Structure formats: structure tokens, C-alpha cells
């Protein structure tokens, strides 16, 4: 029996799609999780329903999982993780089992945002990107927060979290100190990941934000699509995206991304490179050595015909995968983020909105949801996906769908 191991997954369908594809290809799907209840908000294609076998184990402890594999005497043909926090354990297990996966040294450099910034400091001329000014803040040496001179606005963020958790745009010293004081009391993120006790204070770069969706092939890295992003609020929550081959913020973006990834010796899977464009110059925000979240792979598939999930799955299993562009469209997603505290019970007109021109999907998380304040992507409770020939048309269609939602909600006083 052919078997594949999934270490947790993300909550925006990518890992679930890979599970379904694995089963279609004849693989027995093992799903290891430290807490199955963290997937309770997923309405459809819940990984706990898709898996053939579920094991509750500490998925942050690679040594414990390797020991469990040895004791069970099960042969796996691939091991995958789709969220940031389990990329390293998956890479360590893959290496031990002689399976395809990331090199752990390269992975560590990009998973830890401070290491990425430090590594690029002396290599930035070779990377194809510019870098904002930055400073690492360690909990044990935080006194300089009160003494050093910072340039505002700046972005304060953890070195190893994602989904806008702990991120805050600070406009003065008081806001920076407040953000630090809140963050130093946060030891675990919503996925149970133990956070490192360091943060970055980065120069805020104004301008449009993009991401490059990359896949590794036998010929090296290839650009599949570019995504234009929209963010919301002081925590820079990603509230919408539109992806298309026609989005070209700079003409040589593929060459720049290839240089950047090669500089870190990354040679597996996918990459989601986030950058901002200021004065026609690309400023690097993050390198994510994985597929994008937020349903972006679904947007890419709709816009280009390329199934990035299938490509990554096949690569992990040692199966040859080619990139074939079969369509030239644009696809967009818009999220609903509540503006008022309350209990959101139901969106009443989903079927009506599905009839809107261009809309291909609209849905909510499992409701009811008690909303208090938007601090991260976990507070987004609905989304709409639309397609059109032009990026702006697709985004406007998704935006209208979300704005037209009628909610059954009991607002808090």
C-alpha cells in the first residue's frame, strides 16, 4: 500500500485538496495533528474527514514523530506540510526517510524573518530586491525600545508567525511599546505553535503589495502567476487578492525571484514571495517557502490552468510534474471582516449572490461566530471568489459579492 503523511494543514483548503488528490492517485492518507478540534471551523473538505488514518501527536516534535514512524514500521512515500509551522518538522522527517523535501538550513533562513533579513544584508545587490531598514528586538534586550530612535511609521511583527498574528503598523514610540508589551505576553499562536521571543521592527514601505507564486521544476524555479494584495487595518490583515499572468508590476519579476530563491539555495516545492513596489522598486517583505494560503492556489488554477497543489504533491512523491498554462484569465478573492462586535449567525443570501456575474464561489466559516476585534486573518468569516478576463473586473465582482451579504447578527452593546 502506498502511503503519504500530512503534518497538519492550513485552514484555507490547500492541504485538503492535496489529500483528495492523493486518494485519487491511490495513496493511503495519514493525517497527524496535535489537536483535531483546530479544524472545527472548516465547513467542507475537513482534513479530519478526508484522512484514512488520524494520529494525535505533538506535530512540532520531529524526533518524537520519527520515533513513532520507526515503531510503527510504516513506509511513507511522501511527507507534506502546508502551514509555516510544520515545514521544518516535515523537512526533518523527509530527510530521515530519504524522501523529497526542503533542505533544513535553507528553510531555517527564510522561515525566521530576522535570519532572512540578516542574510540578505550583504547580498542584497545580488538578490534583485531592495530591503527595508530593520531592527531585531529580543525580549532579553528590549530596553533599547525606550532609548533608541526609530523612524515611523514602522511595522512590528514576530519573526516566526504568519496570518498577520502579532503584526501592527506603529506610527509613534508609544504604539511600538504597546505592541511589544502585548506581544511579549503571547507565547502560543492560534495553532499551538510556541513563538520565539524575538520581533522585527521594519521600515514601513508604502505602495502596492504583490506576491509572486513560484514552483520548482527540473529546470529550476518558474513564475506561475503574480497576485496583487489588499490589506485592512493596523494589523495589515490580508482582505483580498487578485491573481493573473497579466499582472506585471515590473517587467523582470521572474528573473528577480529566481535570483532570490537561488541565493537561499531553495530547491523544492513552491514559494510565495511577498513584496511591495515603491518608486518602481521591489522591496522584499517575506519569502514563504510554501504554497500561498488564502485560496491563492485556487485563484492561480482558475487564472492560468496550473494546479500548484498537484505539482507540489507530485514533486514530494518523486513524480515528474510539468507546468502547462491552459488558460489566460484573472481570478480574485475578497474576504468579509466584521466591523462591529457581535454574534454572526448566518449569511442569508449566498444562493442569490452565486448568480452574480463572475462569481464562482461564496461561503462562510462554520457559524455562529462571536466576533470582538479584527487582529489577524482568523477573524475573516466569509469569502467570495470571482473570475474575469481583467484583474480589476474580477476583483470588483468579488468585492460586490461580499458587500451585498446580508447577515443575521446580534450586535454587542
TrEMBL record:
Tagged with keyword Metal-binding: no
InterPro entries: ATP-dep_AA_Ligase, ATP-grasp, ATP_grasp_subdomain_1, CPAse_ATP-bd
UniProt keyword ATP-binding, yes or no: yes
Pfam families recorded: ATP-grasp_4 (PF13535)
Alphabetical list of PROSITE patterns matching this protein: ATP_GRASP, CPSASE_2
SUPFAM superfamilies according to UniProt: Glutathione synthetase ATP-binding domain-like
Domain ATP-grasp: 121-317
Keywords (A to Z) from UniProt: ATP-binding, Ligase, Nucleotide-binding
Protein name: Biotin carboxylase
Biological source species: Scopulibacillus daqui
Amino acid at each position: 500500500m502506498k502511503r503519504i503523511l500530512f503534518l497538519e494543514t492550513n485552514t484555507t483548503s490547500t492541504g485538503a485538496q492535496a489529500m483528495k488528490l492523493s486518494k485519487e492517485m491511490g495513496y493511503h492518507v495519514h493525517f497527524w495533528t496535535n489537536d483535531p478540534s483546530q479544524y472545527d471551523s472548516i465547513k467542507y473538505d475537513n482534513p479530519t474527514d478526508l484522512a484514512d488514518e488520524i494520529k494525535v501527536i505533538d506535530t512540532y516534535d520531529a524526533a518524537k514523530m520519527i520515533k513513532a514512524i520507526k515503531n510503527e514500521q510504516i513506509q511513507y512515500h511522501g511527507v507534506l506540510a502546508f502551514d509555516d509551522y510544520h515545514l521544518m518538522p516535515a523537512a526533518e522527517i523527509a530527510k530521515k526517510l530519504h524522501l523529497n523535501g526542503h533542505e533544513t538550513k535553507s528553510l531555517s533562513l527564510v522561515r525566521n524573518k530576522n535570519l532572512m533579513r540578516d542574510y540578505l544584508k550583504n547580498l542584497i545587490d545580488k538578490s534583485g530586491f531592495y530591503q527595508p531598514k530593520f531592527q531585531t528586538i529580543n525580549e532579553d534586550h528590549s530596553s533599547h525600545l525606550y532609548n533608541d530612535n526609530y523612524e515611523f511609521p514602522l511595522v512590528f511583527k514576530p519573526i516566526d508567525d504568519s496570518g498577520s498574528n502579532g503584526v501592527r503598523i506603529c506610527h509613534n514610540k508609544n504604539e511600538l511599546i504597546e505592541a511589544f508589551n502585548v506581544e511579549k505576553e503571547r507565547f502560543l499562536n492560534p495553532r499551538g505553535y510556541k513563538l520565539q521571543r524575538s520581533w522585527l521592527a521594519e521600515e514601513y514601505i508604502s505602495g502596492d503589495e504583490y506576491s509572486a507564486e513560484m514552483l520548482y521544476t527540473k529546470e529550476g524555479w518558474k513564475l506561475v502567476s503574480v497576485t496583487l494584495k489588499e490589506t485592512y487595518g493596523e494589523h495589515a490583515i490580508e482582505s483580498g487578492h487578485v491573481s493573473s499572468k497579466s499582472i506585471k508590476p515590473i517587467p523582470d519579476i521572474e528573473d528577480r525571484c529566481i535570483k532570490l530563491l537561488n541565493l537561499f539555495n531553495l530547491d523544492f516545492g513552491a514559494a510565495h514571495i511577498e513584496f511591495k513596489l515603491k518608486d518602481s522598486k521591489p522591496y522584499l517583505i517575506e519569502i514563504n517557502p510554501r504554497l500561498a494560503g488564502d485560496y491563492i492556489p485556487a485563484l492561480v488554477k482558475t487564472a492560468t490552468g496550473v494546479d500548484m497543489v498537484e505539482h507540489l504533491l507530485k514533486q514530494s512523491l518523486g513524480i515528474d510534474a510539468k507546468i502547462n498554462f491552459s488558460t489566460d484569465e484573472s481570478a480574485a478573492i475578497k474576504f468579509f471582516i466584521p466591523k462591529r462586535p457581535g454574534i454572526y449567525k448566518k449569511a442569508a443570501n449566498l444562493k442569490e449572490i452565486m448568480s452574480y456575474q463572475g462569481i464562482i464561489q461564496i461561503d462562510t466559516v462554520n457559524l455562529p461566530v462571536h466576533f470582538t476585534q479584527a487582529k489577524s486573518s482568523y477573524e475573516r468569516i466569509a469569502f467570495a471568489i470571482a473570475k474575469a478576463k481583467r484583474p480589476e473586473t474580477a476583483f470588483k465582482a468579488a468585492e460586490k459579492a461580499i458587500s451585498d451579504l446580508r447577515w443575521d447578527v446580534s450586535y454587542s452593546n
